[in-house]
């Protein structure tokens, strides 16, 4: 049972972890709230800084992190010697760890050094979340651990491989979120920008890239955002007759970004 030992070892690494979201994403207006208490220092005991604009984000990330840990406990308990048991309670626990809540609370217009740290922490959550994709794509029931078609990846193989992909993000998250707090506390207060601004559009594109890297093209976690890919806005003609034009590229990857009042930005990329 060497294979089982390796799989369970991966689970141990992800015990702090990580499932499913659309490949097209929209950046909202940041109106979502959560009841999880924030661990940030009160603004009355420190000078004003960019941290004030990120209180909701750090509150949301604390709750998501706890939900991901709860999902990891469920996943560990589901894996037996001969089969993996999927329950609706498990799927509901994973769904409660969706990092979209935190993404909606990232304000546009942050200094690049703060924004990068924030997006790195957000990508840790997204990586961990999509590492549960093998569970989410299964139906409640049991999955045999034995591979019925040797030479190809079975459902159990895919599930365990995906689960292991969240390990680096899980171990990196505490330091990454601390670095984001530190960078924000040392930056001047945020100057608000409009929801239809280019800064808001760029943020939506980067957030979409984080989700796409972890969920697009059949991927399942494992991608951390440690740099800001350059975004260039320029008209690109349709690639096929009757197709849509493109609004620019991000490190060579074509994108469209459209804003709707009250809904935010919707981003699509030319991927897969």
Explain what you see:
A 5-stranded antiparallel sheet has the order 1-7-6-5-4, covered by helices on one side. The chain has a two-stranded antiparallel ribbon with strand order 2-3. It is built from 9 helices and 7 strands, in the order αβαβααααβαααββββ. Strand 6 (253-260) and strand 7 form a beta hairpin. The chain has helices spanning 2-13, 55-78, 88-95, 100-103, 112-130, 133-136, 155-164, 167-185, 198-215; strands at 25-27, 83-86, 141-144, 231-236, 246-250, 253-260, 264-269. The two termini are 36 Å apart. It has one domain (2-192).
Descriptive key words:
272 residues; alpha+beta; two-stranded antiparallel sheet; 9 helices; disordered N terminus
Give the strand line-up of the largest sheet: 1-7-6-5-4
Strand proportion, as a percent range, falls in 5-15%
| Number of structural units classed as domains | 1
Number of DSSP helices?
A: 9
Q: Summarize the helix and strand pattern as letters.
A: HEHEHHHHEHHHEEEE
Total strand segments: 7
Distance between the termini: 36 Å
Largest sheet: 5 strands, antiparallel
Mean pLDDT equals 86
Shape: globular
Please identify the structural class as seen in this structure: alpha+beta
Helix content: 40-55%
What quaternary form is this? single chain
Report the C-alpha radius of gyration, rounded. 20 Å
In the predicted model, the low-confidence regions spanning at least 5 consecutive residues are 1-43
């Amino acid at each position: 049972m060497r294979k089982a030992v390796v799989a369970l070892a991966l689970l141990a690494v992800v015990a702090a972890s990580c499932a499913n979201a659309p490949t097209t994403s929209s950046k909202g207006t940041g109106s979502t709230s959560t009841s999880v208490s924030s661990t940030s220092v009160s603004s009355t005991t420190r000078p004003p800084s960019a941290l004030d604009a990120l209180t909701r984000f750090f509150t949301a990330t604390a709750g998501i992190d706890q939900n991901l840990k709860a999902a990891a406990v469920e996943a560990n308990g589901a894996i037996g010697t001969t089969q993996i048991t999927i329950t609706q309670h498990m799927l509901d626990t994973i769904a409660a760890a969706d990092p979209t809540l935190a993404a909606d609370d990232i304000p546009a217009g942050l200094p690049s050094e703060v924004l990068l740290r924030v997006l790195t922490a957000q990508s840790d959550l997204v990586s961990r979340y999509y590492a549960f994709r093998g569970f989410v794509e299964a139906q409640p029931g049991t999955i045999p651990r034995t591979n019925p078609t040797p030479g190809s990846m079975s459902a159990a193989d895919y599930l365990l491989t995906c689960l292991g992909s969240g390990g680096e993000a899980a171990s990196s998250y505490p330091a990454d979120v601390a670095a984001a707090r530190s960078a924000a506390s040392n930056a001047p207060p945020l100057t608000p920008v409009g929801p239809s601004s280019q800064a808001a559009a760029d943020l939506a594109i980067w957030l979409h890239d984080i989700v796409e890297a972890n969920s697009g093209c059949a991927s399942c976690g494992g991608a951390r955002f440690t740099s800001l890919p350059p975004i260039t806005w320029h008209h690109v003609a349709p690639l096929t007759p009757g197709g849509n034009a493109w609004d620019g590229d991000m490190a060579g990857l074509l994108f469209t970004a459209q804003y709707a009042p009250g809904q935010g930005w919707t981003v699509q990329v030319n991927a897969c």
